[in-house]
Amino acid sequence: MSFDQDPWSRCSPADRKIIEELQGHPQDVSPDEVVLRIAGNYRDLGARIALVDGDREWTYEELGQRVSALGARLRTAGAEGTAKNRKTFAVAIGRSAELVAATHAVALSGHAYCPLGIGDPLAWRSSIASRGGAAAVLVAGGADPGAEGIPRLDVNGPGPAAAAFDPVPPGADDLSQVIFTSGSTGRPKGVLCTHGGFANRIHWMQRAFELTPDDRVALKTPFTFDVAGWELFWPQYAGARTVVVPDGAHASPEALIDVFTRHGVTVTHFVPSMLRLWLQAGGGRRCPELRLVFCSGEALGADLVEEFRSQSGARLHNLYGPTEASIDVTHFDASEHARTPVPIGRPIANTRIYVLDEDRKVCPVGETGEIYINGLGVAAGYTGVDAGENERFAPLGLPAPDGWRTFRTGDRGTYTPDGRIEFGGRTDDQVKIRGQRIELGELEAAVRSHPAVTDACARTYENGTGRLCLSVYAVVTPEARGGDITGEITEHLVQCLPSRSLPGRIVPVDELPLSAHGKTDRSRLPVPARTRPESGRPFLP
């Protein structure tokens, strides 16, 4: 990406001042900070509880011993993490104490880990591990091979006696994780995350939110979701305690409430879809020890913020960022700000966010464009493709420190007059119906504003003549399911949306399908029936 003209030419001096002042502040952070701090805490905090997994408790000393023993086995296997011999290890372990030990051992030995979902088909895991260049796959007992065609290493297996070992200090561009994320072609892309970016993210998070020894952090995010990265490392970096949420419990509001209350969880993360279900179960009222709740992965609705504030005194922080930029790149404290839409806030340290138009010029305040991330946290690229050769990681034609990369997100954003950024959905969430551009999020928000609707999701479908049409799926309250709810919602939408945005079908559902990461999965929504239900107003064709 290059600029033939001044990239600021469309911005007034006042706009430029707002945009430049909202950018992330500089911070000094070494790429080896996370691994060195954690190794030091194993030694210095020996008797303190490091993690709780069901009835098991491991102290910092015990966790350190297990990490040292596994690190020794990695070296014995010829995988010593020198500058010339850094490897990637696939990890096929469920949420557990062993998962924490395995990821720490890989990182402290100078290597990168590639998360595999233990519930995914073996062929899928094998493909991911192979494409990620895994030297071996780490498992925790059992007969599961982890992945086919790749050596299996059981973290619970026999090995040399545990002995303290010095962590291998990584460089800024050494890989910390290879995480596969959905691709637009349907073929997942392996994101090459770096130690420099990850250390910057963890360092900023501790400075911004300051975990203490009294904090208990839930390890609840599916391992293949990038958020699991900070859940796995931040607690031990800060000297706090990890509370392991059992596999499967992350998708059950009641199971989460039970774990949170039994173990006094103070810090957790939710995808907005799951936060909504948890709040519907009264989670905010029933988990009074929570003090920090982070939300990311989907747009956070203002109605959800209001419901959270009515139930809980915890701080609610809206985070935004793609896997390609070390988890999150902006933050907004939603606890005291009743705003619609809820902003994604301002960039984190060592990060700049530019909203650019189609000519790649900086958009003035109030105008929507595409979000470009420039910073220390941007990944090195995708597996098999160098960042410099990948159009999504093209250089930015604005001044930036050496070593910073740029990622073109495909997300839409807007600068606000008070120096925040608002998220406008995916560029591919805009669809064209009858020649008009429609924003799916706008339709979903309108449906959610109906008093009998608790959640909604929109998608496109082809009608009997092959024409592209809109459908919306509405989760309605039990009391509303017996009446003409489709007609009521239609009448409601007519009052608040232009005719071009009205859906061709409204489908009441009991719940929206969720992906393994807790996000709404549009691909699993059923194609609407060809026949129209009776309603007070006809649907659009």
What do these coordinates show?
With 541 residues, this protein is α/β, with parallel strands linked by helices. Among the domains are: 30-209, Rossmann fold (3-Layer(aba) Sandwich), CATH 3.40.50; 434-524, ANL, C-terminal domain (GMP Synthetase, Chain A, domain 3, 2-Layer Sandwich), CATH 3.30.300.30. The chain is 26% helix and 25% strand. The chain has helices at 13-21, 33-44, 60-76, 97-108, 122-131, 195-209, 228-238, 253-263, 272-280, 283-286, 302-311, 440-448, 485-496; strands spanning 49-53, 56-59, 88-91, 112-115, 134-139, 152-154, 175-181, 189-194, 216-219, 241-244, 267-270, 292-295, 315-320, 330-333, 346-347, 351-356, 368-375, 381-382, 385-386, 405-415, 421-426, 430-433, 436-439, 453-462, 468-476, 505-509. It has a five-stranded mixed beta sheet with strand order 11-12-13-14-15. β22 (430-433) and β23 (436-439) form a beta hairpin. α2 packs across α3 (60-76). The longest helix has 17 residues, at 60-76. The model is unreliable at 531-541 (pLDDT under 50).
What's this entry about, in short?
The protein is α/β, with parallel strands linked by helices and 541 residues long. It is built from 13 helices and 26 strands.
Main attributes of the structure:
25% strand, GMP Synthetase, Chain A, domain 3, 26 strands, 541 residues
Write the layout of secondary structure elements.
Elements: H1 13-21, H2 33-44, E1 49-53, E2 56-59, H3 60-76, E3 88-91, H4 97-108, E4 112-115, H5 122-131, E5 134-139, E6 152-154, E7 175-181, E8 189-194, H6 195-209, E9 216-219, H7 228-238, E10 241-244, H8 253-263, E11 267-270, H9 272-280, H10 283-286, E12 292-295, H11 302-311, E13 315-320, E14 330-333, E15 346-347, E16 351-356, E17 368-375, E18 381-382, E19 385-386, E20 405-415, E21 421-426, E22 430-433, E23 436-439, H12 440-448, E24 453-462, E25 468-476, H13 485-496, E26 505-509
Helix pairs in contact: 2-3, 2-7, 3-4, 6-7, 8-9, 9-11
